Amino acid sequence: MRNTTKKTSESKSYVYSRKHKIIAWLALIGIFVCGMMTGVSLWGYKHARMVDTTEKVENFVERNTMPCRVKEENLQRLLTENDHAHNARIYEKLVKIGCEKNKERFANFAESERELDDAMLYVKYGEENFADVPGIRPCEVIEKQLKFELITRDNPASWEHSRNARVYSQMAEDGCPENSEKYKQMALDELQIADGIKVRDDSISQDEMRYTVGTYKKLQMQNEARKYIKKAEKLINPGIDFIMELQRVIEE
After folding, report:
1. Contact, 219 vs 169, CB < 8 A?
2. Could you read off the pLDDT of 148-166 as tens digits, one per residue?
3. Closest CA to 111 of 144, 153, 64, 160
4. What angle do CA 178, 208, 95 make, to 5 degrees?
């Protein structure tokens, strides 16, 4: 009777031991699977962080509730000098989330940037075919489209004259050679007007500084750009990061 009890006890012990081993293996497998899932999640997180910075800024501005004027200022900082397709996308975004009074103007800017991008592509890749159109030269198309960028309303502010100067400087650079000097002088005239109509010298905005420095750069007047930056730095102290941004524009 004792032998039977002893064997039964040993048998149960073996079953329990085997059962525990199986449970332990299952636990190890579970830990391994959890580790794999965590690793995949971390990889996905790192991959997501590689999303284009411009899209992050656009999405952030569009999602967050802030005054339309602030949204416009944030998005307009993403505008570039030479990527007209990118600029058109920014203006289209501004039409959606900008101030109501500016939507028509941004829509015109977007259309102008799209057409200007097409014209630049003709110049770069299809000038031979484009030249077949009677009486039209690529430089004329560029000038025509850039004119849509000019602000022509009554009594424009100083920063708007600075923006017009930036447009004229691009026309001098990318338009027809015979008009280059004319547009260069018009750009300088706009800068002079912008400087002359300021009520206070310390009211210069960062956008106005960007336009002015960009104009001098386009006109190959880097020394004038540096003098302007030093003058503005004394007047408004815009911060070292912004000054470095302007310096990079000159040196590019």
Report:
1. yes
2. 888 888 888 888 999 999 9
3. 144
4. 90
Q: How is residue 113 written in tokens?
A: 């940037």
Count Cβ atoms below 10 Å from residue 144 Cβ, excluding itself. 16
User: Can you state the percent helix, strand and coil of the chain, rounding each to 5?
Assistant: 80, 0, 20
Residues shown for the chain: 252
In terms of Cβ atoms closer than 10 Å to its own Cβ (0-12, 13-18, 19+), residue 121 is middle
pTM score, whole prediction: 0.50
The helix (H) or strand (E) run that includes residue 97 is: helix 84-97
CB contact at 8 A, 193 and 226: no
Whether 84 and 113 have beta carbons less than 8 Å apart is answered as: yes
- For 24, the enclosing helix (H) or strand (E) is helix 2-48
CA torsion, ordered 61, 66, 68, 71, to nearest 10 deg: -30
Q: Compute CA 28 distance to the chain's CA centroid, rounded to the nearest angstrom.
A: 49
Q: For 154, which DSSP code? A: S
